[in-house]
Amino acid sequence: MSETKKQKRVVLFTAPGCHWCVTAKTYLKSHAIKFKNIDISKDESASKDCQRHGCKGVPAIMIGSRWICGFDKAKIAKELGL
Questions:
Q1: Which pick of 1, 20, 31, 49 has the fewest CB atoms within 10 Å?
Q2: Distant-in-sequence, close-in-space partners of 44: CB < 8 Å, separation ≥ 6
Q3: End-to-end CA distance of the chain
């Protein structure tokens, strides 16, 4: 009997016109990772959250309780067990 592993909660913080944000979305979708997308240009509190966790720009990705600033494929893969 195989054990179904529950995916960690993933939140992707993005902004319009951000090439790396599009790359991050494509990467997550290509691995069938479900995620919530938040546009920080429309959500000031989300923007402040990113800054409070040390992210100066987007994309910022929260996986579980871990923050990853920028599109760091290796860190994302490690956190998601890819």
A1: 1
A2: none
A3: 21
Which tens digit of pLDDT belongs to each residue from 26-63?
Answer: 999 999 999 999 999 999 999 999 999 999 999 999 99
State whether residue 72 is helix, strand or coil.
coil
Residue ranges per domain, the chain? 10-80
Amino acid at 63: I
Cα(3)–Cα(66) distance, rounded to whole angstroms?
24
Exposure letters 48-66 (e unless 16+ CB within 10 A, then b)? ebbeeeebeebbbbbbeee
Q: What is the pTM of this model?
A: 0.89
Between CA 72 and CA 70 the distance in angstroms is: 6
Give the pair of three-digit tokens for residue 79: 């956190």
Domain spanning 10-80, CATH architecture: 3-Layer(aba) Sandwich (3.40)
